[in-house]
Structures are given as C-alpha cells and as structure tokens.
Design brief:
single chain; eight-stranded mixed β-sheet; 44% helix
Length: 339
C-alpha cells in the first residue's frame, strides 16, 4: 500500500575540492536523470584548480544547481554546509570524483519511497579501478529481507558489509539528520565512521536499492582514502574508543549491532597499526589488547577472514600479519588501476 502520494524532492550534496578532472563526469551523471524533482548542492571548498569555474558553468546552464563557495574547511565542513542549505525530503551524498550510472535512479528511489517510506535506503557502491575494471560485490543477494524494520535486520546488514562507514551509499530522510544533529565531525579523518556509528541509533525502517549505480573511484592521487597517515589512524582509534563507551540502548539487538560495527573499525586500526610511530603504538596498545573481545566470528565477513588467521596467531602478531595484507592490497589496487 502506498504511503506517499506526492513525489519526493531529493537534495544531492556534492563537496568539491580540486577535482577538475572528474567533476564534469560526476555532474553529468546526475543531471541525466529522468526524474526532475531534485537539486544538486555544490560546495566549492576552496579549490585552487579550475573546479570553481566548472561549478559556475553548471550553475549558469542548469536550474538544478545550487552553489556554495567557501574557504577550505575539509569534507565534513563542506557536507555540513550542504546539509544546512538542503531543501529536500531526502539527502544523497556524492563525492565529486565519483559518478552514477543510469538515468532512472531517482525515479526508482521515488517509487520505493512512495511504497514503504523508509528512513534510509542503502545501495551498494561499485569500485572503479579502470574503465575495464569496475566491480560490485553485490552482497545484498545474501539477504532474506531487503526492507523492513531496521533493528531486526541491522545485524545482517553489518555482517554482509551493507551498512558500512560511508555516507555515499545511503539515502536518508533529512528530518532524521537535522532533528538529531547528525552533522559530520570537524577536524577528523574518516569522519564517516563516527557519523554512521551514530546514525544506527535513529533509523527505524530501511530498504535496499536493488542495483549498483554509484561508482566509487579507487586509488585517485590526492583522495582521502589513498593517503592513510598517523593522524588518520589515531582519529579512527579515538572514534572506536568513544563508540565502545557510549550508553547502552534498551534493544539488545541494536547494542550487538553497534558493537559489531565498531569491531569492523577496530580491524582497521589493527591493519594500519604499523603505520604509527612507536610512541603512538605504545600509547594505544593497552586499549587494543583490552578490545580483543571484539574478535569473534559471525559479526562481519571481514572479521571472519581475520579470525581464520587469528586462530593460529597470538594477538601480538596479528597487526604485523594484517600490515602485510594491507601492503599487498595497496599494491594490488595500484596494479588494477594500471590495467
């Protein structure tokens, strides 16, 4: 039974910083939509290349564009500016070096919302390594329920890497974000981790979009995900520490889900542990040891893979093994981008 009679208005928030080589493809992939009730909010975050000129061109040629031009404040600050400016019923975050595939995406989303009025729609990103190498895991095929009450399916969503630390694979009711002050934390790397962790508390209903339309570019020089450093890892550590210490909820399912979510990000710290200086390794080691209880099967596919090796390794060697896997993964990604 339909819940909405009226069409939905979408606000698509696109932070822009020095992406002159990718921005046109990103915007054209959205502007080609058959559905027309949307706005694209471009936040030029102090770009020093020709990104602002590209934004101004689209501002003049399309009535869908809203342009905010500001001093550089980072990704979180740009997204927060866009969220405050947004007029839509639902928010879609898109990074300006990524792009969409398909012209019916917003039309499909509108129909889904009319039917079930979900708080959040989750879609699976495809990884772009080269024009000939774009892949999606499509883990949604393992789900029995692809819509319904969030708290009853969140454990499966986390296990199959469908609810992950990314803002760009979620379409969310703006009212949920604004009513609960769900803005992105300033001055932190991997800000999506904290933001998504808090989001779990406020979602009642969900749906899964059945296709992969979002193309997530891998290995771009200058991108945040391509440049993990010490501050980045320490930010993740502090987020996990804070996340594990939040007040427990009344729902045991949600408490388990939140723990599983932070367990996934605990693995990230262990994987990148050897990037840290000896000072910071010593500083956080005691906490990492005390969080060993997070390492158990059945929480997430990635953790299950780690557990296969942890069964044969003492904990003190696990970060070194994961570091080897991290380096191997980086080299493999670079190889795939060159094919």
């Amino acid at each position: 039974m339909q819940i909405h009679n009226k069409d939905v208005f979408f606000s698509i928030i696109v932070p822009v910083y020095n992406v002159q080589d990718y921005l046109k493809q990103c915007l054209e992939s959205i502007l080609c939509q058959e559905y027309h009730d949307y706005e694209i909010i471009l936040i030029n975050d102090g770009s020093t290349d020709s990104s602002l000129e590209i934004c101004c061109f689209y501002l003049e040629t399309s009535d869908k564009i809203v342009l905010i031009n500001k001093e550089n404040g980072g990704l979180s600050d740009a997204r927060n500016h866009g969220l405050q400016k947004a007029s839509g019923d639902y928010i879609i975050f898109t990074d300006s070096d990524d792009y969409w595939v398909g012209s019916r995406i917003l039309k499909d989303l509108n129909e889904m919302i009319k039917v079930s009025d979900p708080d959040i729609i989750i879609h699976e990103e495809s990884r772009f390594f080269s024009d000939k190498d774009v892949k999606c895991k499509f883990n949604q095929r393992f789900l029995k329920q692809k819509s319904g009450e969030f708290k009853y399916e969140i454990l499966q969503l986390i296990y199959y890497d469908l609810f992950v630390a990314s803002a760009c694979d979620k379409i969310i009711k703006k009212s949920i974000l604004l009513n609960n002050d769900l803005y992105f934390p300033l001055g932190k790397k991997s800000e999506d981790i904290e933001w998504c962790g808090k989001l779990i508390n406020y979602i009642d209903t969900f749906s899964i979009y059945p296709k992969s339309f979002y193309i997530y570019r891998q290995g771009r020089n200058g991108s945040i995900t391509a440049s993990v450093n010490e501050n980045h890892i320490m930010d993740v550590y502090n987020m996990v520490k804070e996340g594990l210490n939040v007040k427990r909820l009344e729902s045991n399912i949600l408490n388990d889900a939140i723990q599983n979510y932070w367990a996934c990000n605990y693995i990230v710290i262990l994987k990148d542990f050897n990037v840290l200086s000896s000072k910071n390794r010593n500083l956080i080691w005691e906490d990492l040891v005390s969080w060993k209880y997070l390492l158990k099967k059945g929480q997430n596919l990635k953790i299950d893979k780690v557990m296969f090796f942890y069964n044969f390794l003492p904990f003190c060697l696990l970060p070194f093994f994961l570091n080897f896997y991290r380096i191997k993964t980086i080299l493999y990604k670079k190889y795939r981008t060159l094919k």
